Amino acid sequence: MGTAIIACIGSGNMGFALMKGAATVISPKSIGFTDADAQKARAQAAALGAAVYASNTEAAEKGDFIFLAVKPQVLANVLAEIAPVIKKRLSAGNAPILVSMAAGWTIGKIQAAVGNGVPVARIMPNTPALVSKGLIALAASPELSAEKTTELETMLKGAGAVDRIDERYLNAVTGLSGSGPAFAYLFMEALADGGVLAGLPRDKALLYAAQTVFGSASMVLESGKHPGELKDMVCSPGGTTIAGIAALEEGSFRSTVIQAVKAAWQRAGEL
User: Fold this and answer.
1) Residue range of the domain that includes 191
2) I need a surface site. Which of 69, 81, 107, 198 has the fewest CB within 10 A?
């Protein structure tokens, strides 16, 4: 990697997770945080050995890659604040690359706010990035060169797997992998509750539930087999598992999960 400067506007969990991942491939000293909560920015920067910027404007002036790690509802104000700096840099021929993770904010909408022609990447990470096991969908505007897109992808890989995707799919990604960890946690909690109902101590039930979900996901990713085929491998005729499957289907398990993703996808389109 070169000596690219990363400025992260927002120092919440996701911004920190991505900067922590980036710090595995570039010097933490090349990373800087800014936040409306200056104390929080200082704490996150200290944890990484990164810098702190005094304002969003300073971040916009110094960053080669400017991560917009703020809520969708806050992004309009942030873009209005940094737009003069971004336009000035664009006119000078050294426009930074904006990297947004705000649901609902299209590349075109971001460019309209800060200057048409500014290179923009939209990403949709999920919270397992906090333990370097995230999935980060990446869509880049035409202004982003192949070289810079690869450089960005390398930074992001420190937080998990990166998948390049057409922007039109990002709302669906938000509904599936962006919101999906919460659905998975709910499922694991329910599995553990079932274990407690069956007599397991709570700590054992949680361990068995989490490891079972982790192992099952690994089987799908590493075997290349369809989940339905793997499910069939567990279901013996007249056995315990098929009895449990029947109970799930009686409760419309699959339909309910599909509707959860649909609801999250539709909400992403409303933001």
Assistant:
1) 178-270
2) 198
pLDDT tens series, the chain, 271 aa: 457 999 999 999 999 999 999 999 999 999 999 999 989 999 999 999 999 999 999 999 999 999 999 999 999 999 999 999 999 999 999 999 999 999 889 999 999 999 899 999 999 999 999 999 999 999 999 999 999 999 999 999 999 999 999 999 999 999 999 999 999 999 999 999 999 999 999 999 999 999 999 999 999 999 999 999 999 999 999 999 999 999 999 999 999 999 999 999 999 888 7
In a domain, 1, yes or no: no
Structure tokens that stand for 254 in this block: 């699959």
**For residue 127, which phi and psi values (nearest 5 degrees)?**
-65, -25
Residue 230 corresponds to which tokens in the numbers above? 């793997």
Q: Per residue in 129-164, is it b (16+ CB within 10 Å) or e — as a string?
A: bbeeebbbbbbbbebbeeebbebbbebbbbbbebee
In a domain, 19, yes or no: yes
Same-domain status, 95 and 185:
no
Q: The tokens of 136 are what?
A: 């980060």
- State the total domains in the chain: 2
CATH number for 262: 1.10.3730.10
